Amino acid sequence: DRIHLPKKLHTKFLKKESVGERMPKNTLVLFDIGCVLIKLNFKGFYEAAAKVSKQNATMIEKAYATSTLEIDAVEGRIKDQEYCDELKKLIEPRREVSQKELEEIMKHLWPRMIQECIDIKRELANAGYAVGIFSNIGESGHRLLEEKFPEIFETYNPHSPKIFSYKVKAMKPKEPMYREMQGYKRVILIDDKDNYLRVGIEQFGWYGIHFTEYIDSHEPLRILHQDSGWTHQHLITATSAMELRKGLDKFGVKIDTQ
């Protein structure tokens, strides 16, 4: 429950806080999924698709990147099965790709969890911080990842937020995603795209950690939302899990940094 302080006392309390001091335990640390909790491999996905198609991987990549399929799925304009049906046609228009074939191809998108970030998420929860999920993801991707890597979605508390773009009907960096987050004194977003962090910091007063170790240059949303090089006093760049731990510490979030 939130503590409502008298106005004068509340203002005084806020003035005393600064970056580097211990943040309160009603701090929420939000994790993006792709390139933060799960490694992406769009190149492997296109190569796997080419094995059941008369098109090569480059042709499939171009067709997918120039289609609206990814954005339609991520913003919830098309449901799971419609996305799968359209993706089958894009991969091989001359014959029907089976659902089993398609799902095996799609699994190449996510070769493994980023275990060091999963560990940080769990340690934060054990230390008493709220952790949440904040992801541009489609219904199909959510379903397949839940089956293959359910730990990605674990927040260790049924009341902690899980915000998925296909449910909100808008993707980062659009404001409706950010407006879903209510009731926390501080929010720290960990994401691989600085444009997504910028909206949270500038428009919602969040803190941000730009995690860049596992960036996938073939990801369509990265091509659409390229990093700008934007900087801010409430933004830290982390090129490794160790730097991510140190970034959290600089923002006053104290966990084991061994």
The gist of it:
The protein has helices at residues 7-16, 42-50, 57-66, 69-74, 80-91, 99-106, 115-126, 139-148, 165-168, 175-179, 194-204, 220-224, 241-250; strands at residues 27-31, 130-135, 162-164, 186-191, 207-211, 235-238.
Topology of this structure?
Blueprint: H1 7-16, E1 27-31, H2 42-50, H3 57-66, H4 69-74, H5 80-91, H6 99-106, H7 115-126, E2 130-135, H8 139-148, E3 162-164, H9 165-168, H10 175-179, E4 186-191, H11 194-204, E5 207-211, H12 220-224, E6 235-238, H13 241-250
Helix pairs in contact: 2-3
3D architecture notes:
The protein has 13 helices and six strands. Helix 8 (139-148) links the parallel strand 2 and strand 3 (162-164). A six-stranded parallel beta sheet has the order 3-2-1-4-5-6, sandwiched between helices. It has helices spanning 7-16, 42-50, 57-66, 69-74, 80-91, 99-106, 115-126, 139-148, 165-168, 175-179, 194-204, 220-224, 241-250, and strands at 27-31, 130-135, 162-164, 186-191, 207-211, 235-238. It is α/β, with parallel strands linked by helices and 258 residues long. It is elongated, with a radius of gyration of 20 Å.
